[in-house]
Description:
The complex is a heterotrimer. Chain A is an alpha+beta fold. Chain A folds into two domains: about 30-220, 3-Layer(aba) Sandwich (D-Maltodextrin-Binding Protein, domain 2); about 260-495, Dipeptide-binding Protein, domain 3. Chain A has helices spanning about 1-20, 45-50, 100-110, 120-125, 150-155, 170-175, 220-230, 240-250, 295-305, 310-315, 345-355, 375-390, 400-405, 425-435, 455-465, 470-485, and strands at about 25-30, 60, 70, 75-80, 85-90, 130-135, 140-145, 185-190, 195-200, 215-220, 235, 255-270, 280, 320, 360-370, 390-400, 415-420, 490-500, 505, 520. In chain A, strands 1, 8, 9, 10, 11, 12, 13, 14, 15, 16, 17 and 18 form a twelve-stranded mixed β-sheet that branches. Chain A has a four-stranded antiparallel β-sheet with strand order 4-5-7-6, with helices on one face. In chain A, strands 2-3 form a two-stranded antiparallel sheet. The longest helix of chain A is centred in the first third of the chain and has 18 residues, at about 1-20. The relative contact order of chain A is 0.14. Helix content of chain B is about 75%, strand content about 0%. In chain B, strand 1 (about 170) and strand 2 form a beta hairpin. A two-stranded antiparallel sheet of chain C has the order 1-2. The two termini of chain C are about 20 Å apart. At the A-B interface, helix 1, helix 6, helix 7 and helix 13 of A face helix 2, helix 3, helix 5, helix 6 and helix 7 of B.
Amino acid sequence: MVLGFRAFAWATTILAVSTLHVQAQSLTIASAAPVTSMDPHYHTLTPNISAHGHIYEKLIDLDAGGHMIPGLALSWKLRDDKTWEFKLRDAKFHDGTPFTAEDVAYSLSRVPTVKNSPASFQIYTRAVVGTEIVDPHTILLKTAAPYPLLPADMIQVYMISHKLGAEPATEDFNNGKNAIGTGPFRFVSYQPGNRIEMDRNDAYWGPKPHWAHVDYRMISNDAARTASLLAGDVGIIEFVPPADLAKLRGDARVALSEVVSNRSIYLWLDHSHTGTMPEVTGPNGEVLDKNPLKDLRVRQALSLAINRAGIVERVMEGAALPTKQYLPPGNSNHVNDLRPDPFEPDRAKALLKEAGYPNGFRIVLHGPNDRYVNDAKIVQAVAQMWQRIGVQTTVDTIPWSSYATRAGKQEFAAFLLGWGVNSGEGTNPLRAQIATWNPERGLGTANRGRYSNPAVDALLDQAMGTMDLAARDKIVLQTMKLAMDDVPAIMLHLQKNIWATRKGLTYAARVDEETRATGVVEAGK
Amino acid sequence: MFTWLLRRLFQACFVVLAMTVIVFVGVHVIGNPVDILISPEADQAERARVIAAFGLDQPLWKQYALFLNGLLHGDLGRSFVFNEPALRLIGGRMPATLELAVTAVLMSVGFGVPLGLYAGLKPNGFIGRSIMAGSILGFSLPTFWVGLMLIMVFAVTLGWLPSTGRGETGELFGLRWSFLTWDGLRHMAMPALNLSLYNISLVLRLTRAGVRETLLMDYIKFARAKGLSPARVIFVHVLKNIMIPITTVVGLELGSTIAFAVVTESVFAWPGMGKLIIDSINVLDRPVIVAYLMMIVVIFITINLVVDILYTVLDPRVRLETKA
Amino acid sequence: MSDIAEESPFRRFLSEFAASKIALGGLIVFTIIALAAIFANWIGPQNPYDLAQLDIMDGRLPPGSKSGAGYTYLLGTDDQGRDMFSGMLFGLRISLAVGVGSAIFAACVGTTLGLLAAFFGRRTDAIIMRVVDLQLSFPSILVALMILAVLGKSVMNVVLALVIVDWAGYARNVRGIAMVERKREYIEAAACLALPWRRIMFGHLLPNCLPPLIVIATQQVARAIALEATLSFLGLGVPITSPSLGLLIANGYQYMLSGKYWISFYPGIALLVTIVSINLVGDHLRDVLNPRLKR
């Protein structure tokens, strides 16, 4: 064995010397999750959206801080309550055809026709009931009712050329035939689970991209991703594992860039059981005739028992920010007087006593173990803390594949989940998470704890009918404050998005988790 | 011989069908793929649409019947995730895994037999003992741990080999293969070694055990007494005798090496079937899971068949037509 | 030397076994490890499975640090503030139970079925070997995922998964050996004497299959422990609040690049020593038990 190793090592030295070469102006990106398709309308999956951003573009884009900026649209405004006008810029598709209003109408109408889409972009185009092409650079989008969120929806939908004809097949995007956009890079090849190769689009309307060639690799194993950066095989990695942060911060070969994201991590509490909740029992395992989690004081106690700063420092290694709401400070829908709950175990104990649980109770705390950053560790840390206020906590972590279904069936009493607000806009979490579950109106879709508060619902309806941005923001802040003070779920922290680059490169950290080659710049250029 | 083959084929079909039933029930029990794939922002109507599009609103037996119907027409269904025919998806990833597994198994024989032979001939020498001690490391260290260690040593510290991924590929029979290019071979070295460590130990130990037993056999003693050269005794008589357990193991291990490439592929970001299947399991992409397992079963049964036939060639005492 | 005639086979086996110092050393080390695992509660300063005794603020402390409760973290702590030394003792217990338990169960099931297949041939053989094919063609990860998804995570379920994964390997190997053995003269002679089939199978066939079985079984203990670690690595092993040695290594895996070596290094050493000692004993057992190595 020893012998074999030596011979092997010797042979590889020769190999290494002969093929050592450096490619100029070529960037290798290591992404953390596989890209499942090159069809920009096939699957609303963050890794896909992130990769597609190199090739395709949207009407409205987001800057690194998550604010709307013109994309393929130069400007947009309300004509009347139900009509939006978009002015389009001069841009060219990779095949040389100009981008026009016809392509916008085509792209919006193509979205619902994508076959077998596991998660359709329809949710972002559904509000548009009609389009009207005024001239090649002006298009009107019509909605059935006043709909203030249309611009927020338009930051999700990539534009493709109407020349692709009726019902272009997803396969033809994957093999490159249809992978034609207006973006800064053009498609070269796509190898599922391995890499996407792209070349610079020299006819790009915006600033000329620095990189002539981009190799977009998928390395989902955390340690392997870090190792590939340390080995110099890639220029930038996304989702730097927190465990490696301390080491990378001290490593002269790499540079880090980070920003607080729109992704919050929290513990849902069950509100659906009024009577006995099977996963919550008395201190000696006896059946309780009512669900303690319906009592605000119990929810507050469970929140006050948690040392968020400790979790952020010890478990997340600083890669998070304690929170009590869905959006980070600096966002226009961030409520300034909604501070993260303090760590006060004694007050927590007092509240439990007041609520009639002087000896606590038993609870099962569930968490996924392959979904969010350090999900299983956070759950364990919370269990330690609950244990200290007399709540006997059993931890159960399971893979997301079975977790997702079970969490949606109200089987769990307390369970960890995360929510990313892609649009960076406050009604999104309120409508999906906090609003009462209502299939007919499409509200409370992600309200897995089945929280319901009529006062919150009424305020939210009011916000959704308000077209004036400033007035709406005010109502949203008010709704958020009302809801979060009622502790529907125990908010823990907002994750930080962290990228690591080789020395000499920097990345403008993006709130929306996307990794874009255009954001990677060489120092001094 | 012919009826024997036919019977094995018939049994094989039964195995494949039994497997598909298990997977259908298993995936059904674990969870609903739609809950994993769907956008978190999707509303209830969108969820219902996707469930219907995948046919998951039908009762399970009906879903299975539809699958069988497709199977008869050579259609194993489309991946929920990739929207490509499952078989084509797997076919695209197969060369990567196949060349990795075959290289690993070849390495296990290439390293394992000579080392085992040496250890068996000189069981009490220092080198013989060291080889045995080293082999224990081979199957006691978890693959993922060794994999990262290899990356740390050969890619990060020494910088001799690329850390992860598959390199340039050459084309043969319309498929992409790494072993045709220098860069591809360099990328393959570490994952193949990582995957073969367990097998090297296994082959090594079986060889040693076999050699030690065989050396005490009367016919070996007789061959020596007859004055045959030691080399001839070892390479003709001893090796021939130990080829049976080794053939069995190598055969068996090729199948499981393909199946177990999962861990190596995920540590080295190797875009093979193992990576595909673990990703598919994580999102419950049933068509891909079923197609992959069917293929593995078929590969496996073929290997077993070959091993059984080789048995008869190598050991005339075993007959295919066995009667109690 | 009058006691030669009285010496029982077991005594003979013992004296032959003791002849190898290395094997004896392995046995002694293994006994110490097993005892340490059994008495973990009294040896370890902390109960690492009691969440109330852990504090994340004590997380990832290097070896030799003082704990809030006054004792020293001899081998440091992991990310949850678990004393590595206590955690390893408790983890050893689980790993040994999982490894030995699953190897024994799998060997019993696999050997019995393998012998049955070889002995009766025909339909019995066909059915058993097809089930073996079916089993061997399933990646263990999928089997484990299904079992653990349906039944929930627990040590027993991991053992069950490993037995289901491993039994087929024994069956196939035993059948292969037994097929050769049953053609030998002594089995034919036994059959001619019309001995009951149970006696032929377990009394004559089994002992001759034992040596290779012991090689496989000792490796299988090691393999089971390593496989359990791999399952943990993939998030499917034992519950995270009661980590096995393998899970401790898997947890520490992500800290390997960060220089906090103790989180996976010490459990790794413990795993290695355990497995090496099992194998030293196993290897020598094989030599002693093998009728064909008798001079």
